[in-house]
Design brief:
Blueprint (H helix, E strand, L loop, with lengths): L7 E3 L4 E4 L10 E4 L2 H9 L6 H22 L3 H12 L6 H11 L6 H34 L5 E5 L14 H10 L3 E7 L6 H13 L3 E4 L4 H6 L5 E4 L3 E3 L4 E4 L2 H11 L3 E4 L5 E2 L16 H4 E2 L2 E2 L12 E4 L6 E4 L2 E3 L7 H4 L2
């Protein structure tokens, strides 16, 4: 994987997004020039992954200013457009945090907004590299054996899901760079297959040995002793360590707890939301029924069936062995809480 790969990149007066709905069959870039297109791109998962959405939202403030100048909007209309970007996906707190951060420069004009958005992107890459090193150190110490590790991951948490490098996949990349990675089990991640389409694509670019498996196989793979640890990302982490991530994550955590192996969550501190006390307070996005009732546009369920399609689930903090951020690793299940980490 070239280190310069960016899922989100500012291109003069537009935002260039790798269209992740087309991977791995085609690699195409969408040039976003207005707020409506950006909101649609976020909601359709053209850009996805909490840190990448945060970076896109940061640049979305600049898009709103440029569109407002072009269309003759009032300041209130520009702010309303920014609010639509901020609300495009409700579970991932990074989007709200990054938009709010850039809005602190709003009154200074476009150049200041772009400078702040670029800082958001740069700091995310730096944070990802730091958490990759912290997470690799911690895992190697936890496993305590001088051999390459077998890692399971769920959904996509690499360069495509961030401003660059990756969170959970960044830890995996670091292990691979150290010669301490044997194989990765990548859950396919139903219903939109971010694991088989995106994670596997990134692993191929890196030359990392891996298996793609059905989500339903994960628990069995863990309980058969074929995995040394699981590493996942997060879209929001509550003050008590409860973690919202792609639906299916909680089953991985339960299997790890039963098998007695580490379950590591990798996320930047911007994903920690101290205002959300527990996972019960996290809004879980429900996506369209067609994603689970159809395949490739063809109905697979009976016409009378309804679809239940939560995009995320919440893993209780008691199941999170470690939370790695750019600041280090907290052992949440042992009583260390995110709030203590951020002081």
């Amino acid at each position: 994987m070239p280190q310069e790969l960016r899922a989100v990149e500012w291109a003069g007066e537009s935002l260039a997004l790798i269209d992740q709905t087309l991977l791995p069959q085609r690699t195409e870039t969408m040039n976003v020039r207005d707020v409506d297109t950006l909101v649609d791109a976020i909601q359709r998962l053209v850009v996805r992954g909490a840190p990448a959405i945060g970076a896109a939202g940061a640049y979305g403030v600049a898009l709103a200013l440029i569109e407002g100048q072009r269309e003759g909007w009032s300041v209130d209309e520009v702010r309303a457009a920014v609010a639509r970007v901020r609300a495009a996906r409700p579970t991932a707190v990074n989007l709200m945090v990054c938009v709010d951060r850039v809005m602190t420069r709003f009154e200074e004009g476009l150049d200041a907004v772009l400078a702040e958005a670029a800082a958001v992107q740069r700091e995310d890459v730096e944070a990802n590299r730091a958490m990759g090193a912290h997470g690799a150190d911690w895992l190697l110490d936890m496993v305590g054996e001088d051999r390459p590790l077998r890692i399971l991951t769920h959904c996509n948490t690499g360069a495509l899901a961030t401003a660059g490098w990756g969170t959970a996949l960044g830890v995996i990349r670091e292990l691979h760079a150290r010669g301490r990675l044997e194989v990765v089990y990548a859950d396919e991640t139903r219903p939109l297959l971010q694991g088989s389409r995106l994670t596997a694509w990134e692993l191929v670019q890196e030359g990392i040995p891996h298996y793609v498996q059905a989500d339903g196989a994960a628990a069995g793979t863990i309980l058969r002793g074929e995995v040394d640890a699981a590493i996942v990302g997060a879209d929001r982490i509550a003050a008590n360590g409860d973690t919202a991530n792609k639906v299916g994550t909680v089953g991985v955590a339960l299997a790890c707890a039963d098998a007695g192996i580490p379950f590591l969550v990798a996320a930047p501190t911007t994903t920690v939301d101290l205002a959300t006390k527990t996972g019960d307070d996290i809004h879980i996005e429900l996506r369209g029924e067609a994603e689970v009732l159809e395949w490739g546009g063809v109905r697979t369920a009976p016409a009378e069936s309804r679809g239940h399609n939560p995009a995320f689930d919440v893993t209780p903090g008691r199941l999170v062995t470690g939370l790695v951020t750019e600041r280090g690793v907290l052992e949440v299940a042992a009583g260390q809480l995110p709030g203590d980490h951020l002081k």
